[in-house]
Amino acid sequence: MTEERILMLVKPDGVADHHVGEIISRVERRGYVLEALKVVQATPEQLEQHYHKLVDEPFFSDISEYMLSGPIVAMIASGTNVIKAVRTMTGSTNPTEAASGTIRGDFAREWSEGAIHNVVHSSDSVTSAEREIGIWFPERNA
Ligand code: GDP
Ligand code: MG
């Protein structure tokens, strides 16, 4: 079963720098289907759920401050192996390491202070995607 969904977030830097349309275009251009889309202000509770594996890290407060710093765009895309494809399109976590041609490699750079500003989040597995869709689109799983 390779037909699947992915949760993507355009993070506050991506929205503030006007990359939303380009990011949606890259996903659509590949032929994946945009299933849901919204602009939201994240809450601390959503971020604790979304980053549940990182909550105890010393840099969690940096991540939280970053993700609360402005509106984000949440979207669901679907298609065969969309998770693997979008992870490749997203690029490495650290923008300095992210290959040119990837979203992070094209729109992000490293800064010496605060959280890693890397423009987008993309789910890394079917399990993560379904869990994260429940956090950002609770109305769809009701
Ligand atoms: P991703 O799947 O590539 O987004 O990376 P992870 O799931 O490992 O981490 C989630 C997010 O937490 C990253 O996109 C970064 O914004 C942040 N993050 C991860 N690792 C670190 C770190 O070592 N230091 C800091 N400051 N932020 C981190
Ligand atoms: Mg991740």
Textual characterization of the structure:
By secondary structure, the protein is an alpha+beta fold. The protein has a single domain (3-141), classed as Alpha-Beta Plaits (2-Layer Sandwich), CATH 3.30.70. Helices cover 39% and strands 20% of the residues. The protein has a 4-stranded antiparallel beta sheet. The structure holds guanosine-5'-diphosphate (GDP) and magnesium ion. Guanosine-5'-diphosphate is lined by residues 54, 59, 62-63, 93, 115-116, 118, 121, 124. The active site is at 121 (pros-phosphohistidine intermediate). It holds the Pfam family NDK. This is Nucleoside diphosphate kinase. Its cofactor is Mg(2+).
How are the SSEs ordered, and which strands pair?
Blueprint: E1 3-10, H1 12-16, H2 20-29, E2 33-40, H3 44-50, H4 60-67, E3 72-80, H5 82-90, H6 103-107, E4 120-122, H7 126-136
Antiparallel strand pairs: 1-3, 1-4, 2-3
Bound molecules: guanosine-5'-diphosphate and magnesium ion.
The site of guanosine-5'-diphosphate has 10 residues, from helix 4.
Short description:
Its EC number is 2.7.4.6. ATP binds at residues 11, 59, 87, 93, 104, 118. The protein is built from seven helices and four strands, in the order βααβααβααβα.
List keywords for this structure.
4 strands, alpha+beta, 142 residues, binds magnesium ion, Alpha-Beta Plaits, single chain, transferase, NDK-like_dom_sf, 7 helices, binds guanosine-5'-diphosphate, Nucleoside diphosphate kinase
